[in-house]
C-alpha cells in the first residue's frame, strides 16, 4: 500500500482520504438491497466504507445475505484489484466475486443493459490522465474524448437506474472545460438532477496532485433545475492538508 501511494498520480489515480469517502457514502445513504458500485475501485476504499455503512442496517441472516450480493467494483490494475478483494474479505464480504479485474471503459456504452445497471455509484475516477487509443470508440461520437474522468462521467450516467444516485469526485477541467466537455455537462444536466456540488480544498489530495476537485451529487431521471453549491474551507490555522494533517470528517460538518 505504501509503495502504491508513493507511485500514485502517474496515471491520474489518487487515493481518496478517508474523510472524503465517509462523507460521500454517508450523504448518498446506500440501503440494503441496493446495488452499489465503484467502477474504478482501486483498493476498495469507497466499497469498504459502503459495507460498513450497510452493516448498521443488518438485522438478520436475510439482511446479511442481501449485503453479500450488493457490492460491485471494477479495477484495471492487478495489485489494487488484489488489495480490493482482500479489503472486501476483511470487511465481511465472504466471496468477493463481484470485484472484477477489468477496465470498465473497455465495454461499449451501448452494450450495458438493464441487468448491469446499479442503484448507487460512489467513486473517485482517475483524472488528469488519458486512456489508450481506441477506448473512446466505445462512446457515442459526439462525446468521444481520451480524458479518463470525462469518460467515467458518461459511463456513470449510463449505468445508473432511474432514480439511481451518485457521488463522484471530479476535477475542475470536467466542470469548466469547453468543447466535448460542454456536451458531457449538458448530458449530465439533462439526464440527471445535479442537486449538490461540494468544492474541496486544493490540498485534499496533496502531495499527489494540486488539481482542484469537486464532489458531484446527482440523481438520474429528472433534469437539473437548481444546484446547491458549497465550498469546504480549510480549518482555522491550517494552511494546507498533508500526509501528517489529512482532512477530517469534521471538516464537512457545515455541509451536512
Short description:
The protein is an alpha/beta fold and 256 residues long. The chain contains eight helices and eight strands; from the N terminus they run ααβααβαββαβααβββ.
Distance between the termini: 31 Å
Radius of gyration: 17 Å
Structural shape: globular
Low-confidence stretches: 7-12
Structural class: alpha/beta
- Mean pLDDT across all residues, rounded? 89
Order of helices and strands: HHEHHEHEEHEHHEEE
Fraction of residues in helices?
Answer: 25-40%
Counting DSSP H or I runs of 4 or more residues, the number of helices is: 8
Strand order of the largest sheet: 3-2-1-4-5-7-6-8
Number of strands: 8
The largest pleated sheet is described as:
8 strands, mixed
Query: Strand percentage, roughly?
Result: 15-25%
Features:
single chain, 256 residues, alpha/beta, 8-stranded mixed β-sheet, 8 helices, 8 strands, 30% helix, 19% strand
Task: Indicate the topology.
Layout: H1 2-7, H2 18-28, E1 36-38, H3 45-55, H4 61-68, E2 71-75, H5 78-90, E3 99-101, E4 118-123, H6 148-159, E5 160-171, H7 172-176, H8 180-191, E6 192-199, E7 213-220, E8 228-231
Parallel strand pairs: 1-2, 1-4, 2-3, 4-5, 6-8
Antiparallel strand pairs: 5-7, 6-7
Protein model, in words:
By secondary structure, the chain is α/β, with parallel strands linked by helices. It contains eight helices and eight strands. The chain has helices at residues 2-7, 18-28, 45-55, 61-68, 78-90, 148-159, 172-176, 180-191, and strands spanning 36-38, 71-75, 99-101, 118-123, 160-171, 192-199, 213-220, 228-231. An eight-stranded mixed β-sheet has the order 3-2-1-4-5-7-6-8. Helix 6 links the parallel strand 4 (118-123) and strand 5. Helix 2 (18-28) packs across helix 3 and helix 6 packs parallel to helix 8. The radius of gyration is 17 Å and the shape is globular. The two termini are 31 Å apart. Residues 7-12 have low confidence and may be disordered.
